[in-house]
Each structure stands twice: as structure tokens, then as C-alpha cells.
Design a protein that fits this description.
mainly beta, Jelly Rolls, 5 domains, 5-stranded antiparallel β-sheet, 2 helices, 44 strands, 3% helix
């Protein structure tokens, strides 16, 4: 019996798997190297990453042997839904060098980063917290030797046969770190977590690879780069300064390859204009909302601002509607990475126009002027833009940044005539610019006369439309009233829309190949309805008639 027990122990005895550098994990537990060098297959290069799956016996620990090089760093994690895992790293004498139970508050899985002072044999232990529970778990180990680099100093690399390289540098809480000209890049924090490059600067901002992130935890950060070609990059700390909207910033120097970040507090509903002016190629600008550190909601960032078009010939200008109250960052960069001087101006209001009296202003070359106007649901808004010096264009937006309508030649000559039926009682933004963005000069804005023609029940109306023209008719209706509307045109193809007193469209019809368009309407509200008759192709006479349905 004793001989049998010794044989059984030998058969089922604990195996101590090995994590030798570059070797497979698992040692019979079903794990293995993930990925491999990328090639034609397109697989990711994960030569530094290994993973294994094992089963922990309740009350026991899982041991993994590590053969470590001088200065080697490991990032280890254990994930499972079966128990609360904990990781320890111990030396050959069993002394605990590092340990972790939870990634952070509220996250049960464990994550540990540790840099070894000297080479030698070590062990990685996986346990259940306080020995409670067991079951299957997944162990992931990332191991590498990182090169220490200095912030602000250019680093060169000759990767050769080792496309994956790691670099280490210290950072302080609150810093915005820039990584300039790095190849394929990932970043790990002092806790081992992958850092989200929350505001990578788009190529429209700078004509070179540039990524950034905000430091939330003090300590050593690790950069992982992937490239088979030689490269050089710089890790820098952006200059961050507070900005008071409305207060100009003069004579600011932007260092070669640098980025300036201005922070300010914005209020929901603010309409702001920011302009950084510099000689030569100028500077480019980018605006971002900065969510609270505890927020993981990407929609906070995406929905916080509505950007409008700035001046076509005024680089470094941003026009934005702020849709959240909180902290915003204005990021400025010289597109070619050159040193330059610039000035920064800002406003947080937009001029209001009450439309009672005409407005006379001057448009700068390639500029855009914006005005806030009040509108009511069901109101027919008809605005005219006049200029003898440039081809004026008008555009109307709601406060979500959606363009409602635009016009550049609807008036006489090159004047603009904008007509829209509003569906909401709200503020709207009117944009004035030169069609094609090539002109400048004086202009006028004025409210055009109401073009609506009355249509009485049972009577016939008639009109003449020019190509692409529109005429508007109105009638008074009441709830549940049943009507039949006919529109007849023989010389052009008509497009007819019917709107209620609230500005909401009731029905739309395209005449098509027929000579007439017929509507059967049941009215929902008490008030004035409008009929919009437009020419889709051609021009000529038309008639319309509105009668009670039997």
C-alpha cells in the first residue's frame, strides 16, 4: 500500500513550470507563447508576452519559476472569475519582493510590475486571497529589459532582429507627456496598466507622429515600440498653463518640436473662438474636453464640443460650442516642428443679432463671422445677406452643430437669401462667409419680408417658379380636419412639402412623371400651416387647390 501511495504521488506530483526568457509558459499546463514576429500573416509582434492557464487547488499556491536577467522587468497579471487572485514574487530563499491583490479598488484581478535588481532564479506565486477558494485562472506575463531614457533628450534605436524595444522614464502626476516620432507605440504605467493615449494629436495638427497622455500615477513609465527599421524619438513634457478666456496671451515662444497646452474652465452653452497667430506656416490648434479621472465614458469626450468652421486663411483658429461644464485643453503645435513665436486671443461669447434693424459689418479675408439669433417653433425665418465686394454666403446651425440650411445666391445678384421653417424655440447660430473663402469686405444682414401667400379653403391659387425656386403658401387649420391638396404643374417637376404650425413636416410629395401631386391630410393641430412648392427641374406656372374631404 505504501509503495502504491509513493507511486501515486510521483505520478500526480506538483510540476514547477518555467518562465525562462523567450521560452514558452505553461510547462504542461496548456499555456504557450502568444503571437510571434509579425509578417505577411499580419499577426501582432508579441515576443515579450506569454500566457498560461492553470487550476489552483483551494488552500494551495501555484508556483512559476523565473530565470531573470540583470535589470529585467516583469508585468504579471492573474485573471479569473472563480476566486480573488493574488500574486507574489519571491527570491530563492522565499523572501517576498513584491505582491499585489487587486489592480485597483473595485477590480478583483491582480496586476504587478516589478524590476529586478540582479539576475538569478526567482519564483512567481499565484494564490487565492487569504487562501479562500480556487479554480481555473489565466496568468499573463510580460517581461523585458528596458533602456533608461531622459525626458527631453532624443533617443535613437537600431532594432535589427529585435523589433520590440522597451524604454523607461520617470514622470510626475499632472504632467502631459509627449512622445514625438516614435513608431508603433504602447505605454505602461507604474502599476503595470496599459495607458490610454487619450488625446493623440491628429496628423492635421502636426505632420509627424506625436502621441500624448496625462500622468495619473507618479513613478516609472514604460514605452513599448515596434519597428524593424532604425528610428529616433523624443519623450517630452508639454508646457501646460492656465488660460482665462478673453485675456490675450502675447509673445509666447513655442519650442522646436514642442507642444503648448492651455487649460481653461468652460461652461455648457459657451460659444468660444480661440486663435493662435504666428508668422510663416503658423501653428495648428486642437481642442479637447478633459473628463474627470474617474470617468471611463468616451462619450464625455466626444460629445463635449461641437466644432464649427473657422477662417480658411487663419490657421490656428477654433470656433466651438461647449456642451459640457468642466476642464478643456487647447493644444498648439507647429506643424513642421519648428520653433516659432505666437500670440493667443480668445472670446467666450458670440454677438447676438435681434433682427429688428439691419446689421452692417466687415468680413476679413477668408474669415467667418457668427451671430446668435432667437427663433420660435413654427417661425418662418427669412434672412438676407448683401455685399457688393464679395459673394456672400449664409448658413444656419442649431446648437448641436447641425446645419439646417444655407444659401449664397438666392437674392439679387450675388446676395444671399436664406429661408427656413424653424421646428424649435431656441437659439440658433448664423454664419456669414465668402462663398469659396476667397473674398472680404463690407456686408449687411437684414430680415427679408415675409413671402407667404394665403390660400383659402376651396379657392385655387397660382404662381410662377424659376428654376430651383420655392414659393410658400399658408392656410388655417384645426385638429382632425380632413383636407385634400392638389398641386398641378405642366412645365416642370414639382416638389411639395406641408408643415404644421409647430414647424414639423406633415407630408412630402415628388410630382415624378405625373402632371399633378395629390395629398390627403388629417390635421393634428390648431393654427397656421404652410405649403412649400419647389421646382426640382425646369420652371413655369403651377396651380394649387385645397378642399375639404368628404
Amino acid at each position: 500500500m505504501r509503495t502504491f501511495l509513493f507511486a501515486l504521488v510521483a505520478l500526480l506530483g506538483a510540476v514547477l513550470p518555467s518562465f525562462a526568457q523567450g521560452g514558452a509558459m505553461g510547462g504542461g499546463f496548456g499555456g504557450g507563447m502568444m503571437g510571434g514576429a509579425g509578417g505577411a500573416s499580419g499577426r501582432p509582434i508579441d515576443t515579450d508576452l506569454m500566457t498560461a492557464t492553470n487550476i489552483l487547488t483551494p488552500g494551495q499556491q501555484s508556483e512559476w519559476a523565473l530565470t531573470i536577467k540583470d535589470g529585467e522587468t516583469v508585468i504579471a497579471s492573474a485573471t479569473t472569475t472563480n476566486f480573488d487572485p493574488a500574486i507574489q514574487i519571491v527570491d530563492k530563499d522565499g523572501k517576498v519582493l513584491a505582491e499585489n491583490d487587486d489592480v485597483r479598488l473595485g477590480v478583483q484581478d491582480t496586476l504587478l510590475v516589478y524590476r529586478f535588481a540582479k539576475a538569478g532564479p526567482y519564483k512567481l506565486l499565484v494564490k487565492a486571497f487569504k487562501g479562500a477558494g480556487g479554480g481555473q485562472f489565466k496568468l499573463t506575463l510580460r517581461r523585458f529589459v528596458a533602456t533608461d531614457i531622459k525626458v527631453g533628450v532624443r533617443t535613437t534605436s537600431q532594432p535589427g532582429s529585435k523589433p520590440v524595444q522597451f524604454y523607461r522614464f520617470p514622470a510626475e502626476v499632472g504632467q502631459t507627456v509627449l512622445v514625438n516620432n516614435a513608431p508603433e507605440l504602447s505605454v505602461f504605467s507604474p502599476t503595470g496598466e496599459s495607458v490610454r493615449l487619450r488625446n493623440p494629436l491628429q496628423e492635421r495638427l502636426v505632420r509627424r507622429p506625436l502621441a500624448s497622455f496625462r500622468v495619473e500615477v507618479k513613478g516609472d513609465y514604460y514605452l513599448r515600440t515596434v519597428s524593424s527599421q532604425p528610428y529616433a524619438f523624443t519623450v517630452a513634457s508639454a508646457k501646460v498653463a492656465p488660460l482665462t478666456l478673453g485675456q490675450p496671451i502675447t509673445a509666447r515662444k513655442l519650442a522646436a518640436g514642442g507642444v503648448d497646452i492651455w487649460t481653461f474652465q468652460g461652461t455648457e452653452g459657451d460659444f468660444i473662438r480661440l486663435r493662435a497667430k504666428a508668422e510663416g506656416t503658423g501653428v495648428d490648434a486642437q481642442l479637447a474636453y478633459i473628463p474627470a479621472p474617474s470617468s471611463d465614458d468616451e462619450s464625455d469626450v466626444q460629445e463635449a464640443t461641437t466644432l464649427f468652421e473657422g477662417g480658411a486663411k487663419t490657421e490656428g483658429e477654433l470656433v466651438a460650442l461647449l456642451r459640457k461644464t468642466g476642464t478643456y485643453e487647447l493644444t498648439l503645435a507647429q506643424p513642421l516642428g519648428l520653433e516659432t513665436d505666437y500670440t493667443l486671443t480668445s472670446t467666450k461669447t458670440v454677438r447676438s443679432w435681434e433682427q429688428k434693424t439691419p446689421l452692417a459689418e466687415t468680413l476679413t479675408l477668408g474669415g467667418m463671422d457668427y451671430y446668435s439669433i432667437e427663433g420660435k417653433a413654427g417661425e418662418l425665418l427669412r434672412l438676407e445677406g448683401l455685399s457688393q465686394q464679395f459673394d456672400i454666403e449664409l448658413e444656419l446651425y442649431n446648437l448641436r452643430g447641425e446645419k439646417l440650411t444655407s444659401n449664397d445666391d438666392g437674392g439679387k445678384g450675388r446676395n444671399a437669401l436664406l429661408t427656413v421653417l424653424l421646428s424649435q424655440t431656441a437659439k440658433y447660430l448664423l454664419k456669414v462667409s465668402c462663398y469659396g473663402n476667397g473674398g472680404s469686405g463690407t456686408y449687411q444682414l437684414r430680415r427679408a419680408p415675409d413671402p407667404v401667400r394665403p390660400l383659402k379653403l376651396g379657392e385655387r391659387g397660382s404662381g410662377i417658379l424659376s428654376t430651383d425656386g420655392t414659393e410658400i403658401w399658408s392656410f388655417t387649420g384645426k385638429p382632425s380636419q380632413a383636407l385634400i391638396l392638389s398641386v398641378r404643374a405642366t412645365d416642370f417637376n414639382s416638389y411639395v412639402r406641408v408643415f404644421g404650425p409647430d414647424g414639423i413636416e406633415l407630408d412630402t410629395r415628388d410630382q415624378g412623371d405625373s402632371t399633378s401631386t395629390l395629398f390627403a391630410l388629417t390635421l393634428p393641430l390648431d393654427g397656421i400651416y404652410t405649403i412649400w412648392v419647389s421646382s426640382k427641374s425646369g420652371a413655369g406656372k403651377y396651380t394649387l387647390r385645397l378642399i375639404e374631404a368628404d
